[in-house]
Write a structure and sequence with these properties.
single chain, about 500 residues, alpha/beta, six-stranded mixed sheet, 15 strands
């Protein structure tokens, strides 16, 4: 007998319904159980055999499985329990049986059953237990979603990219994160060195302790030493009170020193001493403080050249580069531009309370053609700029920053090649509009004859003709013309301007 889905009654409220699988080889009993569970806002799928139940469990998710213990065999219910826990750990299982054997009940609980009910069922008790099982399942799912959100912000998932260069960097990141080894991150400005440092920390045993970042190039020599190691009151003119340094504050955690190649030589000596002895001495103090900190440093300079030039200590360089992690520039991972762009667009659309429906193919191609001297940081800034200046919910070429707007478009990605085909008449600037635009498919000799005059015309000429005739039909109303053609008003204005400029050039040529 086929499985059957029973929808919850309308009076059960507006809370999210429980997805429940009821398994029983007695159809009448299964229907009673399902009907009873509808009263607690459950959507029930009924299966009448072990095989059918196992197929459903492998194919879809249930918050709760309520199964008879004995179906075809005495072990049927236990097999359903074991399979459920293996395939869907967040699902809770409630078993029903006419047997009162304590041994079977104990085995079921050891295998992870949420509860064990005896037949004949007390339907009120059944509803109460299934509701509690559903609450436990949903709490576990919520915890998983929270963890996923944290991972997206701080974990490997927060490091966005699918290019080969980025995947190699992420794989190396995964290998070194669980260790305590010092890491030197190499990469151009704006490649995301601090993001990788955060991911290292939050995927390490130190993740519950502080992560402290400091840019070595942003401070003078005296201030940098004070920031790193702290100072005591009166150590220098402006030292009006004791100050805890970054190393002491980050004790047990991770300290990230960005632009470490710009650190003065005198501070390099003290940093080396700290790494060797695991001790610091605040400025103006004779007190030694023990610290346990993992050091992650980063630079966009060639430290080997700096060592040869005498501006960076060789011994410190080798201390910092126990493990190196090189981050690719955005040009080296150009295929990640669309992914990063969409990610940043979502962030800034939410920040500025805007709806961004998409990015035109021409805008994406121009972005792909850009060389990105500022790397991911520059792309993020450009994404914010485009969201801010956009007025119609669709990012087009005229929303691009000045650095990009006049670029020749780059090559299409495979996805954009498919979209380009949908935009063959040139006036449709996004996939949604293309799919919703009407397509003329001749279905009669009369229609075929009406299309004959257009056969042999170029697509550019057809586009010009359709715009011209639609403008004539609307009495020159550009807003209405854009609506009929399924394009943005600005796109229509640009095409009209382009046609006008072409006409002017042709007139000048003829003269």
């Amino acid at each position: 007998m086929a499985s059957k889905t029973k929808e919850p009654n309308e009076q059960n409220g507006t809370s999210k319904p429980l997805n429940v699988l009821v398994v029983d080889d007695e159809p009448a009993h299964a229907e009673v159980v399902a009907a009873s569970l509808e009263r607690i806002n459950a959507v029930c799928v009924v299966a009448y055999s072990e095989k059918e139940a196992l197929e459903l469990i492998k194919r879809r998710f249930f918050d709760v499985v309520v199964s008879d213990l004995m179906l075809e065999t005495n072990e049927s219910g236990l097999q359903i329990l074991k399979t459920t826990k293996r395939e869907s750990p967040d699902t809770e299982v409630v078993l029903m049986t006419a047997s009162s054997g304590v041994e079977t009940a104990v085995e079921a609980m050891l295998e992870g059953a949420f509860n064990y009910l005896q037949k004949p069922l007390d339907l009120k008790q059944l509803r109460s237990i299934v509701q509690k099982a559903g609450d436990a399942s949903k709490l576990r799912q919520d915890n998983q979603q929270l963890k996923a959100r944290l991972d997206e912000k701080f974990g490997f998932d927060g490091v966005i990219g699918s290019s080969e260069a980025m995947l190699k960097a992420i794989e190396r990141l995964k290998r070194i994160a669980p260790t305590d080894a010092a890491v030197l991150i190499l990469g151009d400005t704006g490649t995301g060195k601090e993001l990788f440092a955060q991911a290292l920390h939050h995927n390490s045993p130190r993740k519950s302790k502080p992560f402290v970042a400091l840019n070595c190039a942003a401070l003078s020599e005296n201030l940098l030493e004070s920031e790193l190691f702290g100072h005591v009151k009166g150590a220098f003119t402006d030292a009006t009170s004791d100050r805890v340094g970054k190393f002491e504050y980050a004790d047990g955690g991770t300290i990230f020193l960005d632009e470490v190649g710009d650190m003065p030589l005198s501070t390099q000596v003290k940093l080396l001493r700290t790494l060797e002895s695991h001790e610091i001495m605040p400025v103006g103090s004779n007190k030694v403080i023990k610290v346990n900190v993992r050091l992650v440093s980063a630079t966009n300079r060639n430290l080997e050249d700096a060592v040869e030039q005498g501006t960076f200590r060789r011994d410190l360089y080798h201390r910092l580069k126990v493990v190196t992690l090189r981050l690719p520039s955005l040009v080296e991972r150009r295929t990640d531009v669309p992914i990063l762009l969409d990610h940043f667009m979502k962030i800034f659309a939410k920040k500025y309370n805007k709806t961004i429906k998409g990015v035109s193919t021409i805008a994406r191609r121009k972005l792909l053609a850009y060389d990105w001297p500022g790397n991911v940081r520059q792309l993020r800034n450009f994404a914010e700029s485009m969201v801010v200046v956009d007025i119609d919910g669709f990012i087009d070429a005229d929303d691009l920053p000045e650095e990009i707007i006049d670029l020749e478009p780059g090559d299409l990605t495979p996805e954009e090649q498919e979209q380009e085909q949908e935009e063959s008449v040139g006036v449709v600037t996004n996939a949604t509009s293309a799919k919703s635009a009407p397509v003329l498919v001749p279905s009669s000799p009369e229609q075929e004859r009406s299309l004959k005059p257009f056969v042999g015309m170029s697509l550019d000429a057809l586009e010009r003709l359709f715009i011209q005739e639609t403008l004539r039909a609307t009495g020159g109303n550009r807003e209405e013309t854009a609506r009929i053609l399924g394009v943005g008003e600005r796109t229509l204005y640009r095409r009209i301007k382009q046609f006008s400029e072409e006409n002017d050039r042709n007139v000048q040529h003829d003269q």
